[in-house]
Amino acid sequence: MKAIVNGAEIGLVKTDANWFPESEGNYAIEHTGSGKLLIHVNGHTYNATLLEMNRAEKSMEILINGQKHLVQIKEPLDELLHSMGLDKVADAGAASIKAPMPGLVLDVLVAQGATVTKGDKVLVLEAMKMENIIKASGDGVVARILVNKGETVDKNQVLIEFS
Q1: Which residue range forms the structural domain that includes residue 12?
Q2: The last residue of a domain, from among 11, 46, 74
Q3: Sheet of 121-127, strand order
Q4: What's the total number of domains in the chain?
């Protein structure tokens, strides 16, 4: 697991229910309620407040001792999907979604005429024995659904068009 903090990559390890930097040290976290934490690192205490969280983007903005920090989490699955090109499923302008690789359509999660926003789940594609959730890369309205549940698709085949 990795965290990108203000553009710098940090390796993370899990201890108990929390994730900490791979570097050695003594760490502890106290939840004080309402999105506030006390983070204890090697004898120093930091006040942290969650300002904003985007679960779809796996990112958050936090305030630590008065300084804002942008944190993005990269899980091993994120790295795998990136290496396979599955994180770039739509073409420019979000006019359509194309299949990132050959696969089987397990489910279509939207209907024609539905309004979607960036990050909304629109389709489930099985490829290489993995279920991949295909998400909208931008805001739009579903103009046409060109595939059905149970269909096999080819790489770059248009699955859904937006207006």
Answers
A1: 2-74
A2: 74
A3: 130-135, 121-127, 103-108, 152-153
A4: 2
Q: Is residue 83 part of a domain?
A: no
Two structure tokens written together for 150: 């149970």
Digit-by-digit pLDDT tens for the chain (163 residues) are 676 777 777 776 666 666 667 776 677 777 787 778 887 777 888 888 888 877 777 888 888 888 898 888 887 777 777 777 666 543 344 588 999 889 999 999 999 999 998 888 999 999 878 888 898 888 889 999 999 999 999 999 999 998 8
Q: What stretch of H or E contains 82?
A: helix 76-84
Q: Are 68 and 78 in contact (CB under 8 A)?
A: no
d(CA 87, CA 85): 5
Contact, 105 vs 123, CB < 8 A? yes
- Taking the whole predicted model, whether its pTM rises above 0.70 is answered as no
Give the 3-state secondary structure percentages of the chain, helix then strand then coil, rounded to 5.
5, 55, 35
Neighbours of 142 (CB within 10 A): 20
